Structure formats: C-alpha cells, structure tokens
Amino acid sequence: MSTATTLPAIAILGTGSMGSAILSGLLQPGVTVEGGVRVTNRTPEKAQALADNDGVTSYALQQTPDANVRAVDGAKVVLVGVKPAMVPDLLREIADALEPGTVVVSVAAGVTVATFEQILPEGVAVIRAMPNTPSLVGKGVTGLAAGTRSSAEDLALAHAVFATVGEVVEVPEDQIDALSTISGSGPAYVFYLIEEFTRAALDKGFTPAQAAVLVNGTFAGAAELLVRSGKTPEQLRIQVTSPKGTTEKAIEVLQQGGLHGLFTRATDAALARARELAAGA
Asked: Can you tell me which residues bind NADPH (predicted)?
C-alpha cells in the first residue's frame, strides 16, 4: 500500500486463514477503518489471538452465540469467510441485522451470488470474491464479481478492501470459477513445480538445504525480475535461452513433453470440479 486508504466499518465473519489475511491488510499503516473491524471465530482461543490488535473487536461464538449479529451491527462491509456449507445458515442469521446499503462480500468458494441474494434483503448488495493465499503476505490476487444489485460504488469499495492485500481483477461472475483455476489454485501449481524442481536438484547430488536455496531462490528471483523488468515471460525466457545452449535443450524437452497441453487439461479439470461444487455435487 503506497497511498492512504480510508474504509468504513467492516465485519469479517469466520476469520480463518483468508479472513486473517484480509484483516492483516486492514491493519497496515496507511489504512484507516472508520468504526473499526469486527471479527468472529468459533473458539475463544482464536478470538483472543485477534483481540489484541488496535481497532479490532473480536468475538467467540462459543462465548457469545449472537456474535455474528453483533459484528454486522453498523458495518458497511461484511465479509463472509465461513465454510461454503455453513453460508446459508449464517446468512439467515444475520439477514435482519444488515442495514440497507450494506455490502456483503463472499469469499466462500463455489457459493454463487444468487444464493446470497436469495436469502439477504433486497437493500443489501452482494459481491463475490476469489482471493488467493499470497494475500497472507500482501501479494495476493483477488477476483471480484458484482452481483445483480451492487453498484459501481459497491464494487469500488470491495476493490479497495482487497487492494490492501494485493492486486484485484474485476470479472463477470461467470468467469469467477475460471479465475479460481488460475489465480486461486495457481499458488499450488507453483509449489508443485518447486517440489519437482527440488527433486531434480536432489537427484543431481545437492543436499536438501542446497536444493532449497537453489530452487526457492530461483523462483523468487525470477518472479521479482518479471515484476521489475516490465518484460513478458517469453522475452525473459528468450533472454536466458542462448541458441544451441543448455537451456534451449531443457526447454525443448519441456515443450516435447506437452507442458502447454498439460496445463490446459489441469485447469480444465479444476474448472469442471468448481462447477460441480457450485451445483452441489
């Protein structure tokens, strides 16, 4: 965050890893949440861990059964971060406590805007979000999709919230599932590539510690170079790949192995599963 951001009161219902990541963005220097942040968790232990942050009111459902209703009272933005199966009951619980003009943002994978809009009052706007795990370190990518009754201002407000933990891409809702197979699942693909690359290093005689430095450092450095250089991945790859050199031989093997098709099939499989989940399969 390079510029100051002022946001209205926010409630985060279900402050698991992703909710905690968003909370960390809201607590950064330069971010002001007028009215504070209210968060809910199931256990007192989890609630207490968040209660020490300035401007945060933290509730435990085991101690305060109506914690979700208390948290949304007066909140302009409500983030729903509970498990997908728990969403309908939670929405019914808070529906009457939401003020007209409230923006409810779903970070529950596979739960459609229609599900939210069917349960919540008409005066409440709904936006669907798909953040990813690098949000935990402020390097996230979040997809946002407007609901049928959300305004441009509502979407801009949600955008500002998620911009505290990284970059934001706005898409129609029918692209959210596809987006989830790229940026949502994408970190797992990168980690899997790092795992395999590390195995290759170990097979060549490097120690686990050496392999970690070589592989993790190479991925981190290449990503940073991509960000800073302003060049495309293809341009940077060509820059490293000398004609008739060693890298060219390695790239040829990867291309002959059908890496492009493999990524297409993998993301297609993820998309098919996302649609099954959305349909309740």
From this structure: 68
Residues 139 and 118: their CA atoms lie apart, in Å, by 33
Binding annotation for NADPH: 68
Q: Tokens 């510690």 sit at which residue?
A: 209
Q: In order of start, what are the domains of the chain with their CATH numbers?
A: 5-176 (3.40.50.720), 186-278 (1.10.3730.10)
pLDDT tens digits for range 32-85: 999 999 999 999 998 998 998 999 999 999 999 999 999 999 999 999 999 989
Strand partners, 56: 37
User: Which H or E run contains 32?
Assistant: strand 31-33
- Report the DSSP beta bridge partners of residue 59: 40
Closest CA to 131 of 102, 159, 156: 159
Binding residues: 13-18, 68
- Cα–Cα separations (whole angstroms), residue 28 to 39, 65, 94, 148, 165: 16, 30, 28, 32, 9
How is the chain classified by DSSP, letter by letter? Answer: --S-EEE--EEEES-SHHHHHHHHHHTSTTEEETT-EEEEESSHHHHHHHHTSTTEEEEETTT-TTHHHHHHTT-SEEEE-S-GGGHHHHHHHHGGGPPTT-EEEE--TT--HHHHHHHS-TTSEEEEEE--GGGGGT-EEEEEEE-TT--HHHHHHHHHHHGGGEEEEE--GGGHHHHIIIIITHHHHHHHHHHHHHHHHHHTT--HHHHHHHHHHHHHHHHHHHHHH---HHHHHHHH--TTSHHHHHHHHHHHTTHHHHHHHHHHHHHHHHHHHHTT-
Dist CA 88 CA 85 (whole Å) = 7
Query: Annotated binding site for NADP(+), which residues?
Result: 13-18
